[in-house]
């Protein structure tokens, strides 16, 4: 709106200046042509009178001048005409001289421009020039615009040359021009104000609905799906509002349907998982009985009993994971936080994973400059996170050493599990927390994982306000880092460990989240997703 008013004002000033200039020039030229004709006629008549009159003395000549020249005065109220008779010094060779005089005691030096005086004295034609005429108004001496015409006349009896000037007062015309200019600028100002009011009304009628649409869009984005635009009339803005409301209603219906489908899916998984627990418990009891009596079976039945027992156990673990995921989806997961020593949890996880480490011939090493790190956390959930990370490292470590790094700063504790096995690409690291995701679908699981371990670990970390992040490089191994706030109400800003940790000891200071060590392998990755196993 401001730019529109500025441009309009500039246009009005330009147009007003152009109109004023054209009017002034046109009016001036018209009056100039009129005055030229009048002056030529008047001066010619005076010359003719002086040439046809026979006088012999100075007194008669003076009387002739005084009788003739006043007839040049007048010219009308809009442009009064005056005269001046002045001597021409170069031509005054006789003692017979008429004293210069003029209307209202005007003198040549006061009213006639120097260039016109010079032209008249040296030439024989009629000349003209703009001038400024002295006048008295309310006791104040003023100068008003005028036009002066001049020529030489010859007075008898000595045929002495004099300069005769006719002066036209243009103050009336100047007043007319001032009035026209005033009308133009006042009209331009009123037009500018009118345009400003129109622009304001139009802008308000257009910007108002757009601003309202932006506000409604923000509310829709915030989840207030019932918000709609107010529409009035049948113009384009009203049609836009109606289309916007139609779109919002369609989005609301689709989002509501998707939410209902998601709730139905979550409820279905939860219901099925609960319903399967009872028959699965019965099947497991039967499988345990068969497994205990397998030595009495023939080799085929014995092997069948062992497979049945192992698969029932794996199915029960999968069912437990599904139930846990359904709790997270339903928002029913509860955090039972208490002061917990991370070192004790790590040692407990290592003890539980030692048989698998022995079978893979992998050595698990804890690297830390500390011996105790206490945080406010749910020990069951942190134990589950660490167990998933260690089992994944053993699964993919290819029998190479597994390093567990522990470090802390005043606000946080970090645990990083680093293997040196097959590794994973940055794309895999970004998806590793997806449910049931596997980097190599053809690769068999040797730990009996459900494919939900890292997904559950991620949800456990979120409950604590923690970070669970992954890094990997093909052929160089991978690293998972868990960063926990020491206090439940704390907000994480930096991690005590880089990702991946340095190979020698621990870093001396805190590192920003996702910052790799100087000697670390490239790439970084992910904090949400599923399981590699």
From TrEMBL:
Q: Which residues form the Histidine kinase domain?
A: 271-488
Q: How does it sit in the membrane?
A: Multi-pass membrane protein
Keywords in alphabetical order: ATP-binding, Cell membrane, Kinase, Membrane, Nucleotide-binding, Phosphoprotein, Transferase, Transmembrane, Transmembrane helix, Two-component regulatory system
Q: Name one GO molecular function term.
A: phosphorelay sensor kinase activity
SUPFAM superfamilies from the xrefs?
ATPase domain of HSP90 chaperone/DNA topoisomerase II/histidine kinase, HAMP domain-like, Homodimeric domain of signal transducing histidine kinase
Name a single GO biological process.
cellular response to phosphate starvation
Q: Which InterPro entries match?
A: BphY/WalK/GraS-like, HAMP_dom, HATPase_C_sf, HATPase_dom, His_kinase_dom, HisK_dim/P_dom, HisK_dim/P_sf, MtrAB_MtrB
Annotated membrane-spanning segments are 179-202
Matching entries from SMART domains are given as: HAMP, HATPase_c, HisKA
Q: What is this protein called?
A: Sensor histidine kinase MtrB
According to its UniProt entry, this protein's organism is Arthrobacter pigmenti
The organism's taxonomic lineage, starting at the top: Bacteria, Bacillati, Actinomycetota, Actinomycetes, Micrococcales
């Amino acid at each position: 709106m401001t730019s529109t008013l500025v441009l309009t004002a500039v246009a009005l000033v330009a147009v007003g200046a152009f109109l004023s200039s054209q009017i002034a020039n046109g009016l001036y030229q018209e009056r100039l042509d009129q005055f030229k004709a009048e002056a030529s006629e008047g001066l010619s008549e005076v010359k003719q009178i002086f040439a046809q009159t026979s006088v012999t003395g100075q007194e008669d000549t003076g009387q002739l001048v005084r009788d003739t020249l006043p007839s040049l005065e007048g010219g009308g109220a809009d442009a009064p005409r005056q005269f001046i008779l002045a001597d021409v010094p170069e031509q005054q060779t006789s003692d017979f001289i008429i004293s210069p005089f003029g209307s209202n005691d005007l003198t040549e030096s006061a009213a006639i421009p120097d260039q016109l005086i010079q032209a008249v004295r040296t030439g024989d034609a009629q000349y003209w020039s703009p001038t400024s005429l002295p006048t008295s108004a309310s006791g104040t001496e003023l100068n008003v615009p005028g036009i002066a015409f001049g020529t030489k006349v010859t007075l008898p009896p000595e045929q002495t040359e004099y300069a005769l000037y006719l002066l036209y007062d243009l103050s009336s015309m100047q007043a007319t021009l001032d009035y026209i200019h005033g009308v133009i600028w006042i009209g331009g100002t009123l037009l500018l104000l009118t345009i400003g009011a129109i622009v304001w009304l139009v802008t308000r009628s257009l910007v108002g609905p757009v601003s309202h649409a932006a506000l409604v869009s923000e509310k829709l984005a915030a989840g207030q799906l019932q918000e709609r635009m107010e529409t009035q009339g049948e113009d384009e803005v009203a049609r836009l509002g109606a289309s916007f409301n139609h779109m919002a209603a369609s989005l609301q219906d689709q989002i509501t349907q998707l939410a209902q489908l998601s709730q139905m899916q979550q409820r279905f998984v939860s219901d099925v998982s609960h319903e399967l627990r009872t028959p699965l418990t019965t099947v497991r009891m039967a499988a345990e009985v068969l497994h205990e009596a397998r030595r009495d079976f023939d080799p085929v039945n014995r092997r069948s009993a062992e497979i049945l027992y192992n698969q029932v156990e794996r199915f029960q673990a999968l069912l437990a994971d599904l139930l846990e995921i359904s709790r997270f989806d339903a928002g029913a997961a509860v955090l039972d936080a208490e002061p917990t020593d991370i070192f004790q949890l790590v040692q407990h996880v290592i003890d539980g994973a030692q048989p698998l480490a022995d079978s893979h011939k992998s050595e698990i090493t804890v690297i830390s400059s500390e011996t105790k790190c206490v945080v406010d956390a749910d020990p069951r959930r942190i134990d589950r996170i660490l167990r998933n990370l260690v089992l994944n490292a053993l699964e993919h470590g290819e029998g190479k050493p597994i390093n567990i790094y522990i470090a802390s700063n005043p606000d946080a504790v970090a645990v990083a599990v680093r293997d040196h096995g097959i590794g994973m690409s940055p794309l895999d690291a970004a998806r590793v927390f997806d449910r049931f995701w596997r980097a190599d679908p053809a690769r068999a699981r040797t730990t009996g994982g459900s494919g939900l371990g890292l997904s559950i670990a991620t949800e456990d970390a979120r409950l604590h306000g923690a970070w669970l992040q992954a890094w990997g490089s093909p052929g160089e191994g991978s690293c998972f880092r868990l960063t926990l706030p020491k206090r439940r109400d704390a907000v994480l800003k930096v991690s005590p460990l880089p990702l991946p940790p340095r190979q020698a000891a621990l870093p001396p200071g805190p590192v920003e989240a996702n910052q790799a060590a100087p000697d670390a392998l490239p790439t970084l990755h992910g904090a949400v997703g599923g399981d590699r196993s």
